[in-house]
Specification:
single chain; 7 helices; mainly alpha; globular; 105 residues
Length: 105
């Protein structure tokens, strides 16, 4: 993970590098704890961000997904899949948060 992150995460990484390094190490350890592919992990993290209702995390995982070459349609499908368990309003909000990123590209 780079310390050149947008917003509050970047501020935290710059002001508390040891905390950020420990956080990044935890992320690496959890990523390597199973057999999910990088693509699968990104989509799961996007879904978890949607479930948590975190606009910033949805932006982050959508941005990373685009950078990793995930299809825009796949990112938006994750928002559609949220309709059943989370409800239409949450899914629509998530779709707009994803579009904030995908419409730039």
């Amino acid at each position: 993970m780079s310390k050149d992150l947008p917003g509050a995460a970047g501020d935290l990484a710059k002001s508390n590098p040891a905390v950020w390094e420990a956080y990044a190490a935890l992320g690496a350890a959890t990523a390597n704890a199973g057999h999910l592919t990088e693509r699968e992990r990104r989509l799961v993290k996007l879904a978890l961000a949607i479930g948590a209702g975190s606009e910033g995390a949805v932006h982050s995982h959508a941005r990373r997904g685009v950078a990793e070459g995930l299809a825009t349609e796949d990112l938006h499908q994750v928002a559609l899949l949220a309709i059943g368990p989370l409800g239409l309003p949450r899914a629509v909000a998530a779709g707009t948060w994803i579009a904030d990123i995908t419409d730039k590209n």
